[in-house]
């Protein structure tokens, strides 16, 4: 499915990813790799290096990694919760992109068992 800009300022792909490989979503290297590879795969241009932050919460299940990369078209971000085998992921873009290609890449990279996806039309 290719997202097309019907109106407004852009499209926002939002994924809730369940049953993920805990090791890969707790790996700064794997997350950085994804943030470097995915933009090119879906025809977008990175304008920053991936930014990765590991967070150690007081309650261990809330710990995880947050990563994002800025794009000429907007951004890609990920927020992981390895103890819950879950992560939240999004791509916001002011131009068309192949949603299925992005979802398939992320599914394979992190061995996701179940994905809930939503596409939000942003703007006016």
List the helices and strands and how they pair.
Layout: E1 2-3, E2 10-18, H1 22-25, H2 28-41, E3 51-55, E4 64-71, E5 74-81, E6 86-93, E7 97-98, H3 99-110, E8 114-122
Antiparallel strand pairs: 1-7, 2-6, 2-8, 3-4, 4-5, 5-6
In short:
The chain has 124 residues and is of the alpha+beta class. The chain has helices spanning 22-25, 28-41, 99-110, and strands spanning 2-3, 10-18, 51-55, 64-71, 74-81, 86-93, 97-98, 114-122.
Description of the molecule:
This protein has 124 residues and is an alpha+beta fold. The protein has one domain: 4-Layer Sandwich (S-adenosylmethionine decarboxylase), CATH 3.60.90.10. It has helices at residues 22-25, 28-41, 99-110; strands at 2-3, 10-18, 51-55, 64-71, 74-81, 86-93, 97-98, 114-122. Strand 5 and strand 6 form a beta hairpin.
Short descriptors:
single chain, alpha+beta, six-stranded antiparallel sheet, two-stranded antiparallel sheet, about 120 residues
| Order of strands across the main sheet | 3-4-5-6-2-8
Name the quaternary structure: single chain
Total number of strands: 8
Helix content bin:
10-25%
As a percent range, the share of strand residues is 35-45%
The total of helices stands at: 3
Whole-number radius of gyration?
Answer: 14 Å
Q: What's the story with the biggest beta sheet?
A: 6 strands, antiparallel
- In the CATH scheme, the class would be Alpha Beta
């Amino acid at each position: 499915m290719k997202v097309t800009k019907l109106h407004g300022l852009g499209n926002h792909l939002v994924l809730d990813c369940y049953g993920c490989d805990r090791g890969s979503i707790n790996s700064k290297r794997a997350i950085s790799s994804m943030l470097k590879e995915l933009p090119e795969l879906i025809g977008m241009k990175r304008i920053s290096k991936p930014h990765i932050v590991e967070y150690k919460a007081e309650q261990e299940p809330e710990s995880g990694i947050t990563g994002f990369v800025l794009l000429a078209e907007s951004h890609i971000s990920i927020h992981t919760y390895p103890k819950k085998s879950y992560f939240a992921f999004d791509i916001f873009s002011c131009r068309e992109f192949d949603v299925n290609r992005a979802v398939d890449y992320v599914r394979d990279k992190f061995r996701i068992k179940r994905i809930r996806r939503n596409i939000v039309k942003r703007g006016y």
